[in-house]
UniProtKB/TrEMBL annotation:
PROSITE patterns in the cross-refs: HTH_TETR_2
Organism: Catenulispora subtropica
Nucleotide-binding recorded as keyword: no
DNA-binding region: 28-47
Every HTH tetR-type domain range: 5-65
Identification of the protein by name: TetR/AcrR family transcriptional regulator
PANTHER family documented for this protein: HTH-TYPE TRANSCRIPTIONAL REGULATOR RUTR, TRANSCRIPTIONAL REGULATORY PROTEIN
Transmembrane segments: none
Stored InterPro entries: Homeodomain-like_sf, HTH-type_TetR-like_transc_reg, HTH_TetR, MT1864/Rv1816-like_C, Tet_transcr_reg_TetR-rel_C_sf
Alphabetical keyword list: DNA-binding, Transcription, Transcription regulation
UniProt keyword Transcription present: yes
């Protein structure tokens, strides 16, 4: 019998909160059970296994992040949209490091809500790029470049890689977004 108050949604939220505290890579069913004040077997009435719970956390994070991005870029285009888009990712990563790590999960079942939320990110990026009129295959390359720049910067910043220099990370971030905008506006033709 399922314990009163527990549900897949409650476990997902609890796991996401815990991931932000201890890291997504350290998230276990045992840790979630302890946080909920129950024995681990109680969780199996609501989630199949640890991987299924991790996929649920990834889906929730991807969906939340996509909502933030959509709100940030609404009514914007060009550099303004790019800056809002990239900053939404950076802010989310700073506020929710465990959820952000979950959003990068690569083993998502193709028909899951998490996979659908991941596709929404690609759609949002492509919508952003309409303002740059790149066409294919340049648009796909640009999606990958934006992802690499944002994820790379955010990951290095979170790991403390920019703390060794007096220049503020924010100044480098602004310069990187400006440079990315220049690259997108001046994309090589025929590549």
């Amino acid at each position: 019998m399922a314990r009163a108050g527990l549900s897949a949604e409650v476990l997902t939220t609890t796991a996401a909160d815990l991931a932000d505290e201890i890291g997504f890579d350290r998230l276990t069913l045992g840790a979630v059970a302890r946080r909920c004040g129950v024995k681990e077997p109680s969780l199996y009435s609501h989630v199949e296994n640890a991987h299924a719970l991790r996929v649920r956390v990834a889906g929730a994070a991807l969906s939340d992040l996509a909502d933030r991005i959509a709100d940030a870029v609404a009514g914007r285009s060009g550099h303004d949209a790019l800056s809002a888009f990239a900053s939404a990712y950076r802010d989310y990563a700073a506020e929710h490091p465990g959820r952000f790590a979950a959003a990068r999960m690569t083993t998502l079942p193709p028909e899951s809500d998490a996979a659908a939320a991941a596709r929404r990110h690609s759609d949002l990026t492509r919508a952003l790029l309409r303002g740059y009129a790149l066409g294919e295959p340049a648009e796909t390359d640009a999606v990958r470049l934006i992802g690499a720049m944002v994820l790379g910067f955010v990951t290095l910043e979170a790991g403390g890689s920019y703390a060794h220099h007096p220049r503020e990370a924010q100044a480098s971030w602004a310069a990187a977004v400006d440079a990315l905008d220049v690259a997108l506006r001046n994309w090589p033709k025929g590549s």
